[in-house]
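#lab-general

N.A. 3:47 PM
ok so I finally got the sequence cleaned up, no stray characters, all 178 residues accounted for. can someone with queue access submit it? mine expired

B.Y. 3:52 PM
send it over

N.A. 3:53 PM
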Amino acid sequence: MAFDGVAKLLHWLMAMLLIVMFMFGLGMEELSLAERKEALPQHASMGLILLLLAVVRLAWRRAHPPPPYPDSMSPRQQKWARWVVNGFYALMICLPLAGFMHAATYADFEVLVFGSMNVTALLPSGETLTGVFHVIHGLCAWLLALLVIGHVGATIKHMAIDKDAIAARMIPFMRTPK
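B.Y. 4:20 PM
back already:
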């Protein structure tokens, strides 16, 4: 049994966008203040889109429960898989919220999301608060990256070693092993 088309679409769309955003975010660390001033609105806008997609994805998952894990997975593996999924959702929501709070506390310049919404006007600005949200945003990004690496590794393990149907649940056009 596989996830439905909407779940697969949201999964792969968000996977691609999250990778792009991670690379974009890493690149922003190397930019001058003037360059960052130009790049940050696009990063913040895409972050809000990802937050919206995460909420939509979570709502879809609640309304359309995932297929059961195969019997070949031990109860311990199933528990870990559920923890990883919950971790993904928590980070996909916390990461853009922390980024939004980070942008909202900038003192050096305004951040206009979607070219018009000034998020820096929403919270008190200050170096200390900005620094705290910068660290939280970065920590969430690295934790999400580690989860992605573990998720991909576990998927490869299920395909190559266990030869079970886990990967076929989410990978389009993949047949369930016999």
